[in-house]
Structure formats: structure tokens, C-alpha cells
Amino acid sequence: MATTCKQSTLDLAALARNDRPEGLLEGFVLRELPGGQLFSTPGSHRDEVFVVRSGKLRVYLAGENRELSLSFLEPGDIFTTHTPTYIETVTLAELWVMDTETFAYRLARDPSATPEMMRVLGRMLNDAVYLIEDLAFREVPARLARFLLGLAERRGKSHTNGWLIALDLGTEDIASLLGSTRQTVSSLINQWERSGILQRQGRHSVLLIKCDILASLCQ
Amino acid sequence: MATTCKQSTLDLAALARNDRPEGLLEGFVLRELPGGQLFSTPGSHRDEVFVVRSGKLRVYLAGENRELSLSFLEPGDIFTTHTPTYIETVTLAELWVMDTETFAYRLARDPSATPEMMRVLGRMLNDAVYLIEDLAFREVPARLARFLLGLAERRGKSHTNGWLIALDLGTEDIASLLGSTRQTVSSLINQWERSGILQRQGRHSVLLIKCDILASLCQ
Questions:
Q1: What is the pTM assigned to this prediction?
Q2: I want to staple B90 with a disulfide (CB 3.0 to 4.6 A). Which of A73, A186, B56, B183 is the partner?
Q3: How far away is chain A from the Cα of B18, in angstroms, using its nearest Cα?
């Protein structure tokens, strides 16, 4: 929805650079945070709207052993603590902060900030969609390549043309772990066989020929 | 950002129910689409804003062999064709449609629709974040359970207490396919062993004891 925002005349970045909270930012409080500090978590009860005055923040999701960056916030960006994401400062950052309820009343009288909020939300949505595509679709070849190289490294046998690995799993077993389908895994392996990257040897062995290409696919 | 929108007085659902395009919808054209029709694709050049008058639409992402539903649009929801998603009608649907450029000029003069647009964008972002968490974090146990049951079905040996499967892969190999870490996979298997769902038998075999619980984890 980015195109709908071009008409906006509110320059939130310029407004945020002022020393005092003026105009739409009247009543906002300035907070300075060191780099690497967690500003908001999904479970927190705090419900605030903030505008970045300086510095950079990272919006991310976290599982038990893994973090996924969703987006970055920069000067002039407006966002809220009330999302299912983590927000942390990357660098020293200054934020103009106001509680959401007060801001909502303000917004009802003066909606000039909404295009800016939409711009940031729209960007987040785009970033999220690309992350989903990476996870669901594009990561499959990378994870399969990493898996094959891992097997070669841990249990591969040296061979004139590369590394021979025993692979007792069927494509359906591999697909179930990848969250993909047998067809996708099959066509990927066929494609790699045609490109001379690997060669199936009978039903239970694979010869990895071009490990450097597999390694480049892992990124 | 949903809470910031409660102050909005624009009832887009009621406005959309009118027979003629009035108020903010002046100039919008009514389109009727049958159920199951693709309305927008990520690559399309069309750039339109639309408001759902009746029916239901699905917003989704698609890979080679798999679709992922992101969100659903219902009467009163405003959205755009200019996103990296597919949009299709689930049921017979009526949409008020306008090209984005014209709508942007309208919005600059009368920003009353922006809270509604923010509400939908915010909901999409929430849906996207949950989808990412599912894919990246929550799907791991489901895929691992599905993998183990698949092995039992295809190559398991019947055993007094369940199904015995040969598993030549290390936790690191499994983790690389799952897009997870060795620690996560280990702790998951330990947890299932403590719950009596499975039992490791030496280094290369696993006895699946409670297949019904594993099956319930696949959903």
C-alpha cells in the first residue's frame, strides 16, 4: 500500500529531529536507549506508540534456539510495542514514546500520522511475506544441500569423483522433515543430478560431485 | 496497532453495503466475482484498492507444490492488489474497486479511511507473524512426528510395545533438514522419551510406543 502514502505531507523524520515534542509529537516523552537493549517483547503489558528519533532498531521473532529478523526501524518510523514481535536497539537510539490510548485519542482528532503508520505496517507485511517465502519455499534447497554436505562431512567416504554417502532415507522421509513434498524433493535431486552436482548410486547411496556448488546453495 | 483504530467513526462495512458508491467509496466500481476465482497475483501490474461488499476472500502465498493461507478478507475490509500475495474469492464476492493512484489523491484530502486500512494491515501482520512462528518454530515437532510415523509405516518392524524403526541419522542431520538446531531436536526427543512416547534402542534404533500421541502432534 506504499503508493497510497506518497501524498502525505507529514514529515515525521523531521518532526522527530526537533529537540522538543511538537505538533503530532506533543506530549511524547524522549527516551534514550543504549545499543543491544530489548525494548519490547511479545508478552509485555506495555502498550506504547513510538517514533524513532535517531538510531536503529531490529524487529524480530524468537524461538527456543533461533531468531528471525523481520525488519528494521529507522528515524521517522512510527511503530508500537503492541505486536507479537521482539524489538531491540541495534545502536544507541532515541525514541519519542507515548501510551497507545492517549495517542489513539490524538489520532482520532488528527489522523495525519496514519499514512506514516500504514507505510511502516505495509513494509513490515512485505518483509513478513518474504520471510515466509524463505522459510516455506526457498529454504528447502538450502536445507537439503546443508543436509547432504553434513552427511558427507560426518560419514562420507572419499571417492575418485567426490564423496560417497549412504542415504537410507526415501524422498518422502526427507520431504516430511523439510516440510515439503516428495515431488519437490524429487525434482530438486533430479535437477542437481542433471547439473552434475551429484549422482545417485543405486537406491541407497549418493555421490556428491560438486560440493562447492552445494555449499554455495546453503546460503 | 488495532487499539489505535477504535476511535474511527467510519463504518466501511455499512458504507460498502449501500447500492451506490457513496462518501469515501464515490467513484468506486462494483465487481462481482464467482467463488474460487483468482483476483490478484504477486506479479500482476494491476494496482487497485478494493473494499469487500459481500463474500469472503483468501490471501495466500504459493510455492511450487504448496499454498499457505495468510489471512481472510470479509465485508468492510479494505485492501490492495499491490502486495506480494495471491488473493482469491472463497465464495461469490462483491468488491468496490478503484485504481490506487486515484484513491491516493482521495486519501490525501480525506484520510478517514486510513484507520481502517491500518486495521487490516495490522491484522495481516499479526497473521503473518503467527505463520512465521508456525513455520520456523512450531512446525518442528509436527514435522519430526510425521517423519517418525512415516518411517514406521514404510519400514517399521512390529514389536511387543509398538513399532521399531532403524534410524541411521544423527540429531544434527535431522536438524539440518528441519531448519532447526541439534539442541532443539535433542530436547524434543528427550521430552518424548520422558513422556513414554518413544524409547531410543541403542544408537540407531527408535521404538515408537505411543503412535497415537505422535499422530496428534502432526496436526
A1: 0.76
A2: B56
A3: 24
Residues of B in contact with A146 (CB under 8 A): 176
3-state DSSP of chain A: CHHHHCCCCCCHHHHHHCCCCCHHHCCCEEEEECCCCEEECCCCCCCEEEEEEECCEEEEEECCCCEEEEEEECCCCEEECCCCCEEEECCCEEEEEEEHHHHHHHHHHCHHHHHHHHHHHHHHHHHHHHHHHHHHHHHHHHHHHHHHHHHHHHHCEEECCEEEEECCCCHHHHHHHHCCCHHHHHHHHHHHHHCCCEEEECCCEEEECCHHHHHHHCC
Interface test with B, best of A4, A180, A214 (most B CBs within 10 A): A4
Provide CB contacts within 8 A for B199, sequence distance 6+.
Answer: B161, B193, B206, B207, B209
Quick one: which H or E segment has residue B107? Answer: helix B100-109
- Per-residue pLDDT reduced to its tens digit, A80-104: 998 889 999 999 999 999 998 898 8
Distance from CA of B27 to the nearest CA of A (A): 16
Cα separation, A65 vs B191, whole angstroms: 16
Contact B16, B51 (CB under 8 A): yes
Extract the C-alpha cell encoding B113: 479511511
CA distance A184 to A188: 6
**Positive or negative: CA dihedral A114, A119, A124, A128:** positive
Look at A132 and B130 and tell me if their CB atoms are within 8 Å: no
| d(C-alpha A192, C-alpha A51), whole Å | 48
Q: What is the mean pLDDT of residues A29-53?
A: 93
Contact list, A121 vs chain B (CB under 8 Å): 1, 118, 121-122, 125
SS3 of residue B186 by DSSP: helix
| Identity of the amino acid at B40 | S
pLDDT, tens digit only, all 219 positions of chain B = 444 444 446 788 999 999 999 888 999 999 999 999 999 998 788 889 999 999 999 999 987 667 889 999 999 999 999 888 999 999 999 999 999 889 888 877 777 777 788 888 888 888 898 888 888 888 889 989 999 999 999 889 999 999 999 988 888 889 888 888 888 899 999 999 999 999 999 888 999 999 999 999 887
Buried b (16+ CB within 10 A) or exposed e, A84-101: ebbbbbeeebbbbbbebe
**Residues constituting chain B:** 219
ipTM of the complex: 0.74
Residues 6+ apart with CB under 8 A from B43: none
